[in-house]
Amino acid sequence: MMSSTIRLIMTLLIWVFLLSACALISAPEPTGTPEPPDKILFVGNSFTFWNQGVDYHMELLAASANPPWVIEAESIVKGGAALKTMWEYTKAPNLIGEGDYDVVVLQEDIPETDVDTFHEYARKFVKEIKKTGAEPVLFMAWSYERLGWITMEEIARAHRDIATELGVDVAPVGLAWQRAMKERPDLDMYGSDREHPSIYGTCLTLYVLYATIFGQSPVGLSYQFADKIDRDSVEQERKQWDITKDEVAFLQRIAWEAVQEYQAQQ
Questions:
Q1: Quick one: which H or E segment has residue 257?
Q2: Terminus-to-terminus CA distance in the chain, angstroms?
Q3: Nearest-CA neighbor of 179 among 247, 250, 246, 254?
Q4: Of 77, 238, 107, nearest to 171 (Cα)?
Q5: pLDDT at 236
Q6: What pLDDT score was predicted for residue 13?
């Protein structure tokens, strides 16, 4: 007959086996790092194409990640245009339908239009984008002095309302600008015309877009912002922007904090 000791050992082994099997069955699938988009389209006006364009810098910014993310970023832009103009007078809708994009970023300029019109054309664009299987992202820009009829808080509310209705993400760029200038007034996000972005404004804009699109912190990204290479130049060197590592680190932190805070409030 089987001794009581052997029987006890076998019983314990059976229980260990059963518990291990249950743990394997109930354990969630590992998520890992989300796959980056392969192709991004930016739709907007001069806020999108200023300082060489967010599409140009986004490719290089993503490539500086560890591991590097190789993406293709494009833009369709028109100076002074609101989304209404981009829908009615450019090839943006056709490009979205034919371009096989993973993400389409829509940049509105609400001081150039009104909230109701923004919402109307955001709906049109988002419907077209979702038909292709791409993810829409709303690029929340900033208020400015020339058209001061709307506050930053009202711009943020307009984006939050339509994003909730349509179930899309928002890159809270304007709120990040506000946060950065409150903490460090010496870093002015506005350029000399008090409307378009300065070097700091463009850098912070890119970090907020990166954090929103890729779902990862931009802190530590090594890309040094630079002008486009002059293809006719003998030297073939990029002209570095006048921005320090300390300033870059500050803007990266502000971008990540602003995105996290905005998403926590949704």
A1: helix 245-264
A2: 67
A3: 254
A4: 107
A5: 44
A6: 52
Best CA proximity match to 53, nearest among 63, 41, 64 = 41
| Residue spans of beta strands (DSSP E) within 154-234 | 169-171
Residue 96: what residue type? Answer: I
User: Chain-centre distance of CA 3, in angstroms?
Assistant: 67
Dist. CA 34–CA 5, nearest whole Å = 51
Six token digits for residue 239: 């002209």
State if pTM tops 0.90: no
Query: Is there a contact between 166 and 129 (Cβ–Cβ < 8 Å)?
Result: no
Residue with tokens 């809270």: 172
Q: Give me the pLDDT at residue 225, please.
A: 80
Tell me the CA distances in angstroms from 149 to 107, 119, 128, one per residue in order.
19, 18, 30
Q: Which residue has the tokens 């089987």?
A: 2
DSSP 92-131: HHHHHHHS--SEEEEE--GGGS-HHHHHHHHHHHHHHHHH
Domains annotated for the chain, with CATH where assigned, are 39-221+235-264 (3.40.50.1110)
Q: pLDDT under 70 in the chain at which residues?
A: 1-34, 226-240
* Angle, alpha carbons 16-17-22 (nearest 5°): 100
pLDDT digits (tens, 9 = 90+) for 17-67: 544 544 443 433 333 345 789 999 999 999 999 999 999 999 999 999 999
Q: Is 171 helix (H, G, I), strand (E, B) or coil?
A: strand
As a whole number of angstroms, the distance between CA 172 and CA 154 comes to: 13
